[in-house]
Design a protein that fits this description.
The chain is an alpha/beta fold. The chain has helices spanning 23-30, 46-53, 78-91, 93-113, 119-124, 126-134, 136-159, 178-195, 232-239, 270-278, 288-291, 352-366, and strands at residues 166-171, 202-204, 219-223, 245-246, 256-257, 261-266, 296-303, 306-327, 332-350. A 7-stranded mixed β-sheet has the order 2-3-6-1-7-8-9, covered by helices on one side. Strands 4-5 form a two-stranded antiparallel ribbon. One of its GO terms (biological process) is DNA replication.
């Protein structure tokens, strides 16, 4: 138990109200500021509670003083009072604990509603989880309410043009480190925002029904999600940088989705990924409509036994032809052909830190209402 700096508690009982002094006068006599002199609470047990606090008898989590450590200046000796009242005071610990738990719950609930406490923090912190276990429904409701408000406010800002969604597609062979890189970029982006007073959080989507548990988080990480996990129209709505749209969930419709950042990881290139996504659902949109929603594409690969990261920024370019790969047992065959007008208009190779910095620079341009640090050479 961490002890507080040395201090003293004094209990003064006057014969009558007429014989008492003002708080300012008492403070002057004692030699302290007036805010350190308090009137007792109302009720017949107010004085008794003050006496019990001299030894912290009702407060098991505070340092326990012996009754002989209390000096009696006038009136009945405190040792005798303690001997008479200690049994009752100890029984009062349960009431004090119950009252404190209630106060802690109200404080925790308010902090959840302000976004100061997350579900992860609750599950990983013993004190917070203890309160949560006693008030599960109320805390869950507060988390849900904060998530809804966060989502609605983000959608309003998106419609007002205060930011646009930054979509990054990370691809590479299995085991090359795509998830590690994506997680590093997400963590850096969140830290950069939080330094400036924001409270960004990340939502890691499940492989099936990816938006079921989304609760307004500013960052969505779609790690190794299959293209068929959502209908083509849902992909188009989710990745639209400038419009907030309702996103389907398995059991209920979510509110408008307007994340700051979406990061997708896959083992195939984005054109092939969205070629397969386009096949699910009744959507007659050109493949270009998927690619143009991407801000940047990162290819993760190994060269000379070290990981390299090729960052490409997407824009409108000269028309080019894409051929669908078909991977046979021993060779690659060409399937469907598509003409596209959106693709990488520039590419730069980096190490992991350099790639994260460049992507963060692009995010800062898209989220210009948040003072993220711009990195020289980055692009939107």
């Amino acid at each position: 138990m961490e002890l507080k700096p040395r201090h003293i508690h004094i209990v003064i009982k006057f014969k009558s109200r007429a014989a008492s002094a003002t708080i300012d006068r008492l403070a002057q006599v004692i030699g302290v500021e007036p805010q350190y002199v308090e009137k007792p609470g109302r009720g017949r047990y107010a004085h008794d509670n003050m006496l019990s606090y001299l030894t912290h008898a009702k407060y098991a989590d505070k340092h326990q003083y012996g009754p002989v450590e209390v000096a009696t200046v006038r009136g009945p000796d405190y040792v005798g009072i303690d001997a008479q009242r200690r049994g009752t005071w100890l029984k009062g610990r349960a009431h004090v604990k119950k009252k404190r738990v209630a106060e802690d719950f109200e404080d925790m609930r308010e902090r959840v509603l302000q976004g100061e406490i997350t579900r992860d923090q609750i599950m990983l912190t013993d004190d917070l989880f203890d309160i949560y276990s006693r008030h599960t429904r109320e805390i869950d409701d507060a988390l849900s309410a904060y998530g809804q408000r966060r989502a609605y406010r983000a959608a309003a800002k998106l419609r007002a043009g205060e930011f646009s969604t930054h979509v990054v597609f990370v691809h590479g062979e299995a085991g090359v480190g795509k998830t590690r890189f994506a997680s590093e970029f997400v963590a850096t982006a969140i830290n950069a925002a939080n330094v400036h007073g924001e409270r960004w959080q990340v939502y890691r989507a499940a492989t099936g029904n990816p938006l079921d548990d989304w609760s307004g988080e500013e960052v969505i990480l779609l790690d190794d999600l299959r293209a068929s996990a959502m209908d083509a129209n849902d992909w188009l709505l989710l990745l639209d940088p400038y419009n907030a749209s309702p996103a389907k969930a398995r059991y209920k419709n979510k509110g408008e989705v307007a994340p700051r950042l979406i990061v997708i990881t896959a083992t195939i290139e984005p054109v092939e990924f969205f070629y397969y996504a386009r096949q699910k659902g009744n959507v007659d949109e050109a493949l270009d409509q998927f690619i143009r929603r991407l801000a940047s594409v990162v290819k993760v690969f190994r060269a000379d036994d070290i990981n390299r990261y090729r960052v490409q920024h997407i824009g409108k370019i000269e028309p080019y032809e894409w051929r669908q790969p078909y991977r046979g047992v021993s060779s690659m065959y060409v399937g469907a052909r598509r003409e596209l007008t959106y693709g990488p208009d520039c590419a730069v190779e980096h190490d992991a830190e350099g790639a994260v910095d460049e992507l963060l620079s692009g995010l800062a341009v898209r989220s210009s209402d948040v003072p993220l640090a711009l990195v020289e050479g980055g692009a939107a």
